[in-house]
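Good morning C.,

I know you're traveling, so I'll keep this short. The sequence:
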Amino acid sequence: MVEELLRFNAVLRFAVFLAFLSFSNGAALSSDADIPTNAQYFNTKTRYQDFNTYLRENILAINISAVKPPAPTCTPVHFTIIARHGTRFPTAENIKKIAAFDDLVKTEANGDLSYLSELKAWKMWYKEDMAGHLTETGREDHIHLAQRMVETFPSLLTKENLQGGRVKFITSSVPRCINSTLSFQLGLKEWFHLEGEEFPYTVNDTLMRFFASCERFVETVLNNPEAAIQATLFKNGPEMETVQRKVADLLQIPYDKFTADLAETGFYLCAYEWTIRGLNSPWCRLYDRADAEVVDYASDLGLYYKRGYGHKIDSMASCVLFNDLFNRLEKAANEFRAGQPVSEVVTVEIGHAETLLPLVTLLGLFKDKTPLTADNYASQLNRAFNSGHIVPYIGNLLAALYDCPDGFRLQLRVNERPVEVPGLDEFSPLFKDVKEQYQQILGCNQEAICKMSK
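The tokens, ready to paste straight into the viewer:
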């Protein structure tokens, strides 16, 4: 009964929200706008197809060279995909910042900037009741991801497995994640012509929002300003000051009124207008590539120290999700080895950027030889830990298990691109070797990790 009520409420919210979006901004959506020159630097606000650029031409395209099985004789047994929600509206805090930025430009900006009139004519349309909700674009993100997964694993993601309950759906309790899950399901229903059918999903914040309940992480990192001091130092450093002063000069706004925070806000307003509405807005003209790289690095520093390699607890907080993933793979392998039908051939889990970043960090992916700091910006322009490449909207980690002549093999893919398993330097290592590589983490105790010492 509770599950049915959750699903009904989610569907109702989704329908009302989409109706509102269509009414208020449907005319603003554009599919043929020029792409902003800074689109690859929008950090966690990056469109998936601005990272996987081949999707710009065909959103259902499959990169055949990247998604091959370990060998032609290998058979896919199971895959789990852990994905971020789709494109969303700004948070309530960022909507307030956008309003303040817009107001400052309208009241203080002057001079002969050729597009100043366009900036002043822009109407603030982000409302607090939109905050954090999935957009129409975000809905389409997951519809298309689902359909690409069918094309990628046609023997696993089948109509029969879907109707037979062998495809499982798990989501965070946050509405944008529930609605992303419903959108993923809708993509499958459209593909298999099952529009009238409903499929269950499970809300599990223990897995999808582990970061919110890990006391040690919350106390020592999330609520500790010193934990991300490098990000603070950079935000107050010379690179950000250069961006701040340059944009202030363009708008002819006094420096004391144009903070580094406002400089960031203007850049991400450009990002939101592009990712949500498909508009290459005049806000984007305020920032060149050098500016974009600086703002992008500022955001990455914060994520590095609060969700990535900055502190050990950042990644260890995902212990529960890490073990759940390997338990699913192990169960599928055991059932297949015993000649039994695999009870769960596909698992789809929808969470947040904060779900994925700690997990890929725990796996040792995207680790730079030198830690990111406030004073090594210039040497980190080509860094591995690049959030726009790891967790754009619908960013995802996929673990695919194959039965091969020499045993089970595992492929890890991030955003539909294969990645080498650290320490093994292979794209499709033997599953037993992967487990041995991670033996010190497998079986980790979430409660022990997250409990604060007295």
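Safe travels,
E.
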